[in-house]
Design goal:
265 residues, alpha+beta, Fructose-1,6-Bisphosphatase, Chain A, domain 1, D-Maltodextrin-Binding Protein, domain 2, 2 domains, globular, EC 3.1.3.7
Length: 265
Amino acid sequence: MDFDRLCEAMRRLALEAGDAIMEIYQSPEMDVSFKSDASPVTAADLAADRIISDGLRAAFPEIPLVTEEQAATHGALLGDFLIVDPLDGTKEFVQRRGDFTVNIAFVRDGTPIRGVVYAPAKERLFYTNAVGDSVEEDGTRDSSRVGLSLPIRVAEPDNRSLRVVASKSHRDQATEAYVARYQVADFKSAGSSLKFCLVASGEADLYPRLGRTMEWDTAAGQAVLLGAGGRVVRFDDHTPLGYGKPGYENPFFIAHAPGVALKFG
């Protein structure tokens, strides 16, 4: 794999998809329909999916692609594959809350090793570079010209004073009960895959998810967190969260800085 070419393509396509999303986000009306699982889908999901999937298939025709919005891509895969959530946080998008992201990742041997997370409404762009280190790009949002890329790294947490981030739309009693087992100094809410990036950038120490997610929801954020020195483990046994599972559904998981003394559920 030519990781320079892969990372350039993922970054460019995420920004182009973000432009398409923001054009619809800023329009006065937003058409929303619902999929068979009752989750919302908008024209922005579909426009971003078209940009990203067409771009990846043209650039890397030999690599299988899994994307949320194309059910035909959801068959079982082994080995290398690309996985996309063109608009993670559609509920936040519909409610115009800004916490939505574009997500593209490359998975090898069950681990997402390269990824990009772009939050266009917040103008935050996180990605892994060609060597696998994670950065946040400061400055340009020009898809044809890379701005200043600032390395990011997980914090060294104080277990007597942890900073926890949890879902804005899916925070529940089980999550509250689990977080209560830690000594928490700050508990913030964020939407979509931004939670992984807040841990990756050292703005939070712990992100537990005790709810349903799919691999396309988490792969890019996990890649960014791993590239910043963080970890993502299953909630039940604290083994690494893997990819390419039948049906692409994740178990509950915990994303964290390595210094956090994890509790079992």
